[in-house]
Amino acid sequence: MGTRTALAALAGAAVVTAGAVAFGGASAAVGPAPAPLVQAAQASCLTDGAGLCTVTHSLGKVPEVIVVSPNTPGQFNGFMLNTVQGSFTATTFQVRAMFSQTTPKTFGQIWFSYAAYAAPTAPTTPTTPMTTAPPPTTSFPPPSTPTPTPTSTPTSSAGGGS
What we know:
Radius of gyration: 44 Å
Low-confidence stretches: 14-23
Structural class: alpha+beta
Distance between the termini: 156 Å
Order of helices and strands: HEEEEEE
Largest sheet: 3 strands, antiparallel
Mean pLDDT: 77
Number of helices: 1
Strand content: 25-35%
Strand order of the largest sheet: 1-6-3
């Protein structure tokens, strides 16, 4: 039985290794193009009576997504942190710190990290207005009227000769 267990362990290790190699080779991820605007930073603020505080960002656009993560300095200072729905602007957003679902962290200092993501600014391509060029004009010389050329009338002697 010791041999069977060893063989089973060896076979299991081979499967795990093969899986790791298969997934390890498939990790050449490519992000979206054009890449989104991203700002990641650490922040701190003093919450108000509802556990809210306003954070300034520098994306210059309204973020589509903001991910926040509280940073607690001590083991008994834990709090939940969320972004406030509808608070995203081109320069600020709000977070709310809560000790529990019903108890906000009021008038307290909080520390957190955030990552704000916005859609990329569309590249501006210069647009040249379409101008319709007039059709080319070709000038022809005016038709000429033929001028009669004087013709000489031959003189002949009638009747004969000499």
